[in-house]
Amino acid sequence: MQRHALRLGVSLITFLLGLAVSNVSSLFHLHRASSTQYEREVLAANDAYLDAHVRRDVAALDALLADEFTVGGFWGWGVNKARRLAEVANPDVSFVAMNSSDTQVTADENAGEVSGRAVLVMRVRGAEYVSRPYLFTRRFERRGGRWQIVGVHVAPAE
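Below the sequence we write its predicted structure tokens.
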């Protein structure tokens, strides 16, 4: 009888230990899934930002940019929300493409960043300009249930 009680006790402990380990791993899985959800949301906002430039959609860009939006770095100092909206609305300037590569995203429920390498293709008064490759980091914050871009930092690609 004692032997059966010992086997039952060991079986019960083994079962509970297995259950605890499986729950811990599923908790990590759930955390990663929610993190991936935020990353996808930030990437969608980033894509909308790029599309708004190419489509000249000032209203969409206005909604995406935070009031304190700024662009800074090796070029672009002094670009704030008002200036960016004016650039997109300017009929003499068009953003043909903003080609990104090596894109990485990090995000949680309140903030995120998209970074990578890019080349900007623009037309100014009919002449096409292609930028040198540069590094970018776009900072996002969730405000009022939606993602907004608070800043962009650019640097030369080395």
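The chain has a mean pLDDT of 83.
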